[in-house]
Design goal:
globular, 388 residues, alpha/beta, seven-stranded mixed sheet
């Protein structure tokens, strides 16, 4: 299949830019390739003695993958690839808002020679998902979707950071996929001494983000997934202003110059200053292009504030002090911590959260344990040694 055509369909499917969907398609085939390479390693592990034992890693059976709408084809690959590598069958249920590219991936598996019935796609909404989850033949459900697993991940920017990289990281932590990413570092804590300079730079860069037709290569922000989602995000901005936050830029509906896009679900990316930890925009997951900036003074203080949540999916820190970087990473209560970067992803390492941010892991060798079960077999080569 043509990679660019699949990326174009993902744009139409989801609304994010073609620059991002090309990366998502790359991530999908890299994931499939990675687990195809791991499959032969699921061998037995003998433990030879007079009486010896070995283990077998065996498939679970039928697995269900329920997908979110923000990364349709990539999430389908993340769930399908390890399941197949472990010998399972997979039933994928894409979000009803993004039904297209999951089907394309299933067709690609079929064209590649995967037997009929091993990769299946079922379309539908919540009722369909509930039926799949309750089906007696289903051995495992992997769910990514409409529950608040991310919930305002923290990004900590210390005064000794490299400012240009910190600004770039904050933008990556907030504005990919129109801000509709569960790992987004939307609570941006900036050490007080550099706060004015950071705000000046991040506002300048945010105002320069090209919003518009996501099929154009120069566009950097496309449309939100739906009208209700756009209205919800705009409502958060309005509530933030009522609670005392200051809008430094954006936070409004946006009308691209192309008249064909006038009814699209576009908004200008938003920076909120003068935020406090008790504000709604800081506590609640907005899931849109809105960055909340908060000042801090000391490392101990900011760690306490960053961890003051029941969720823990992702986190980040920018500092030139490598000892501080690793110390902060060790103390942040999150499943992923980015040091001097943000929003990078690799299929070779596991992804998942702490606390209320979900169970289990996607990617890496760790997820193979979730798609298989381990059997121990004992073998006696001689006579039975019996007490009776």
């Amino acid at each position: 299949r043509d990679e660019r055509n699949i990326a174009r369909l993902e744009v139409i499917n989801n609304g994010k830019t073609v620059t991002e969907t090309l990366c998502d398609v790359d991530a999908a085939w890299q994931c499939i390739e990675y687990y195809a390479g791991l499959a032969p390693t699921l061998q037995t592990h003998p433990a030879p003695r007079g009486t010896f034992a070995y283990t077998r890693r065996e498939p679970l059976g039928v697995c269900v993958g329920i997908l979110a709408w923000n990364y349709p084809i990539m999430l389908a690959a993340w769930k399908c690839s390890p399941a197949l590598a472990c010998g399972n069958a997979m039933v994928l249920k894409p979000s009803p808002m993004t039904p297209v590219t999951c089907v394309i991936l299933a067709e690609i598996f079929h064209e590649a020679g995967v037997p009929v019935g091993l990769v299946n796609v079922v379309q539908g909404g919540a009722e369909t998902g509930s039926l799949l989850c309750r089906h007696p033949s289903v051995a495992k459900v992997s769910f990514t979707g409409s529950v608040p697993t991310g919930k305002k991940s923290p990004l900590l920017i210390f005064k000794d950071c490299e400012m240009e990289n910190a600004v770039r990281g904050a933008l990556m932590a907030n504005f990919l996929t129109q801000g509709q990413v569960c790992t987004n570092g939307t609570r941006v804590f900036v050490q007080r001494e550099i706060l004015p300079k950071f705000l000046e730079e991040v506002v300048k860069r945010t105002k320069a983000i090209a919003v518009g037709d996501p099929l154009l290569a120069d566009t950097r922000m496309g449309a939100l997934i739906s009208r209700p989602q756009l209205d919800k995000v705009l409502g958060f901005v309005a509530q933030a202003k009522k609670e005392g936050a200051r809008v430094l830029c954006g936070g409004e509906t946006f009308a691209p110059s192309d008249p064909k896009l006038k009814n699209g679900f576009f908004m200008s990316p938003c920076i909120l200053d003068n935020c406090r930890d008790d504000m709604t925009c800081v506590k609640e997951e907005i899931f849109g292009p809105v960055m909340s900036v908060l000042p801090f003074d000391t490392e101990e203080e900011v760690l306490q504030r960053a961890n003051n949540t029941t969720f823990g999916l992702a986190s980040g820190v920018f500092t030139r002090d490598i000892s501080r970087a690793h110390r902060v990473a060790a103390n942040l209560e999150a499943g992923t911590c980015f040091i001097n970067t943000y929003s990078v992803s690799s299929v070779e390492v596991p992804f998942g959260g702490y606390k209320m941010s979900g169970f289990g892991r996607e990617n890496g060798e760790a997820t193979m344990e979730d798609y298989s079960q381990l059997k121990t077999v004992y073998v006696e080569m001689g006579d039975v040694d019996s007490l009776f």
